[in-house]
Write a structure and sequence with these properties.
Elements lengths: L1 E8 L3 E10 L2 E11 L3 E2 L5 E2 L2 H18 L2 E8 L4 E4 L20 H9 L1 H8 L8 H10 L7 E4 H10 L4 E2 H4 L5 E2 L4 E2 L1 H6 L10 E2 L3 E5 L10 E4 L4 H7 L9 E6 L3 E7 L6 H5 L3 E4 L5 E7 L3 H12 L6 H9 L21 H11 L8 H27 L5 E5 L6 H11 L3 E3 L4 H13 L6 H11 L3 E3 L3
Parallel strand pairs: 1-6, 6-14, 9-12, 15-19, 19-20
Antiparallel strand pairs: 1-2, 2-3, 4-5, 7-8, 10-11, 13-14, 15-16, 16-18, 17-18, 20-21
Helix pairs in contact: 8-15, 11-13, 13-14
Length: 465
């Protein structure tokens, strides 16, 4: 029996788990859960509570080490955000959340100055106003990049554990500053954007040794292994795809990542027009995908209603939405209106009215509108992927928290006219643990990992109506 600790941070919660490989079966136990909500500083900036996150991670790792003999530790988190470190290990700037408004209008200025075609052909990354490149441009203009190096969030955690600074490539690819062909920083683009070279650390691939834990007595000397440190890279590694050439995945959480695995990036004019992204994956793969707003809108609706004294659970909201069968309102969940938190009901109603659609009234109608809009958006993205790749996809694998939403799964099957395999919910953890096991030589490769996951977990099927 072998045990591997996985740190998994999302943009709303985090956990430390232990995955175990026993007699050809993969299992896991959640050791410690904690919330992860941005906070505002005195200047009104939206920040991550970095000190809290580090403390919670250490609490979870200590508990894991007390219960299991660990072979290694690995971390995955959301993408795009970073920590700026000094050479002595201090944090040089606020730990901004990507939903902070400091990047408002920065992307538009960058595109006007340097050219959309040049940026996309160099990086193949979807244009989102909060991408790391625009955060770094905002930081440059604020005088924050005069010294130090930036580490993406998972690599900042690795640095805190090992003292070694290096960015893992799947998360680095989301910066819109990395060349997916060379799998290195695109220095020509970086120079043209006038971002200091010195702030860029070296890179490493998944399935490599980062270092050893050095400052946590309960785990000192345990290997820290690089996995797909972008949580979507780990989720795709943990997606039980049977035929990656003809399967499409939806990693459904705060964001929904709709995509497919390919061997080489596609940076054509058509891919840019569709705003598809070429993020790097495990075993040299490329994840051609698009970000859709996902459960973020639903989470914000629940928070908004709770703040007004109308608390409702996610499960209760699904049942209300299920009874609303006459929805005629479809919105674009990727509309920029939904980037910042708050006032989701007002924004949904505004978009409905703006486009001459019925305004949904009541929690069930609003939720049904969101779920059908998400399913519609998934169908659009899959059609775009088929057009760009010249492939016909035969099946959708939905993983992550949203895979437990039977209503959304059925709506997606109906909208796409494709069969769906839903689960596992914890694909990200399984991808994290699985790549650690591959590194340890206990699982052969990504194909064998996916076979093991299919054999270890029950999946649900949904057929299009």
């Amino acid at each position: 029996m072998s045990h591997f600790a996985a740190i998994d941070l999302g943009a709303s919660s985090g956990r430390v788990a232990v995955g175990s490989l026993t007699d050809g079966t993969l299992s896991f136990e959640i050791i410690h859960r904690f919330g992860n909500e941005p906070i505002r500083n005195a200047q009104g900036s939206l920040l991550w509570n970095w000190e809290m996150l580090k403390a919670e991670i250490k609490t979870g790792l200590k508990a894991a080490a007390a219960k299991y003999e660990l072979k290694s530790v690995a971390v995955d988190t959301w993408a795009i955000d970073y920590i700026l470190y000094s050479d002595s290990g201090g944090v040089l700037a606020p730990t901004y959340s990507y939903r902070d408004d400091r990047t408002d209008a920065v992307m538009e200025i960058a595109l006007d100055t340097y050219g959309k075609d040049a940026i996309y052909s160099a990086t193949g990354i979807q244009f989102l106003p909060f991408n790391t490149v625009y955060q770094l441009l905002a930081a440059r203009d604020a005088g924050e990049l005069n010294s130090g190096k930036f580490l993406m969030i998972p690599d900042a955690i690795n640095y805190e554990l090992t003292g070694i600074s290096s960015n893992e490539i799947t998360n680095a690819s989301t910066t819109q500053l990395l060349n997916p062909n060379s799998r290195d920083w695109d220095w020509k683009l970086i120079e043209s954007l006038n971002i200091p070279h010195a702030v860029f650390p070296k890179l490493h691939e998944p399935n490599t040794l980062v270092g050893k834990v050095r400052n946590l007595p309960e785990l000192n000397g345990v290997d820290v292994v690089a996995v797909g440190s972008h949580d979507t890279a780990s989720a795709v590694a943990g997606a039980p795809l049977e035929n990656p050439e003809s399967d499409v995945y939806i990693s459904s959480g705060t964001w929904s990542l709709v995509g497919c695995e390919i061997n080489e990036p596609i940076t054509s004019a058509e891919a840019m027009a569709f705003n598809l992204t070429n993020e790097l994956g495990v075993e040299g793969k490329v994840r051609l995908l698009k970000n859709v707003a996902g459960m973020w809108i639903i989470s914000e609706l629940i928070r908004e209603w709770a703040a007004s004294g109308e608390s409702i659970s996610a499960a209760e909201l699904v049942e209300l939405a299920r009874s609303e069968t006459q929805n005629k309102t479809i919105i674009d969940p990727n509309d920029p209106l939904f980037i910042h938190p708050g006032n989701m009901v007002e924004r949904i109603c505004y978009l409905a009215e703006k486009h001459g659609q019925p305004i949904p009234v009541g929690k069930g109608a609003i939720a049904r509108c969101v779920y059908e809009s998400l399913a519609n958006s998934y169908a659009q993205v899959i059609a775009q992927l088929e057009s760009v790749t010249k492939k016909k996809f035969n099946k959708i694998y939905v993983v992550g928290g949203g895979s437990a939403n039977d209503l959304l799964n059925q709506l997606t099957a109906d909208a796409t006219q494709l069969p769906i395999s839903a689960g596992p919910v914890e694909a990200t953890l399984l991808g994290n643990v699985g790549v650690q096991a591959i590194h340890a030589g206990e699982i052969a490769d990504l194909k064998a990992l996916r076979q093991l996951i299919r054999a270890s977990f029950e999946l649900k099927s949904f057929l299009p109506a």
